[in-house]
Specification:
There is one protein chain. The chain is mainly α. The protein has a single domain, classed as Iron/manganese superoxide dismutase, C-terminal domain (minor pseudopilin epsh fold), CATH 3.55.40. The protein is built from 7 helices and 3 strands; from the N terminus they run H-H-H-H-E-E-E-H-H-H. The protein has a 3-stranded antiparallel beta sheet with strand order 2-1-3, sandwiched between helices. A hairpin with a 4-residue loop joins strand 1 (126-133) and strand 2. Helix 1 (26-51) runs antiparallel to helix 2. The protein is globular, with a radius of gyration of 18 Å. The protein starts with 25 loop residues before the first helix and ends with a helix. The relative contact order is 0.15. It binds manganese (II) ion (MN). Manganese (II) ion binds at residues 32, 36, 77, 162, 164, 166-167. Manganese (II) ion is lined by residues 32, 36, 77, 162, 164, 166-167.
């Protein structure tokens, strides 16, 4: 029988905990993946369990809001981990990606600048995301506050960077810009090209 699991689960990282060093330390990655990401999963599962029982109207309203937040956290982290690869292992920007970047941003350098600025300017906790809208064939840089605010519904994300303090504080303290600079050295360009290829049907 092929029954689907009815709970969300934490997947292992696609690399070892120390393999993103020196950009992200083992300690930082363990806390982020094992504690923070797991906490969103546990919360989403416990809300789902509560929703299946009796609840007051007010509780239901809060549960729906909390589910959106925690599930958003789970989905975004699940997209984030494979966006990265150990230094030197992520390859170079692929052909599909590069031609879209040239068309939509002029050059890779400009794209990198805009994406970085977008990440730096997230107020409080949030994400910088690169989406591809297959309807207009365009790359779009978006900002996500917390895990769910300003997220365009059903616009597929091909690259995402977590700029919550919990993502970098142990390594970089308040220097978010340094963390973002480091991120470019561990981008998994193979994964990004794959995601784009699936969306473009090539
Ligand atoms: Mn995070």
């Amino acid at each position: 029988m092929n029954e689907k699991k009815s709970v969300y689960t934490l997947l292992d990282l696609p690399y070892g905990y120390s393999e993103l060093e020196p950009i992200i330390s083992e300690e930082q990655l363990r806390v982020h993946h094992d504690k923070h990401h797991r906490a969103y999963i546990n919360a989403a599962n416990s809300i789902l369990e509560k929703l299946s029982g009796e609840m007051r109207e007010e509780e239901k309203k809060n549960a729906a809001r909390d589910l959106s937040f925690n599930l958003g956290g789970h989905i975004l982290h699940s997209l984030f981990w494979p966006t990265m690869a150990p230094p030197g292992k992520g390859g170079e920007p692929g052909e599909l990606f590069s031609s879209l970047v040239k068309k939509d941003f002029g050059s890779f350098h400009k794209f990198k600048d805009i994406f970085s600025q977008n990440a730096i300017s997230v107020q409080g906790s949030g994400w910088s995301a690169l989406s591809y809208d297959p309807n207009i064939g365009k790359l779009l840089i978006t900002q996500i506050e917390k895990h769910n605010v300003n997220l365009y519904p059903v616009l597929p994300i091909i690259m995402v960077l977590d700029v919550w303090e919990h993502a970098y504080y142990l390594d970089y303290q308040n220097k978010r810009g340094d963390f973002i600079e480091g991120f470019w050295k561990i981008v998994n360009w193979y994964e990004i090209e794959n995601r784009l290829g699936l969306l473009k049907g090539v």
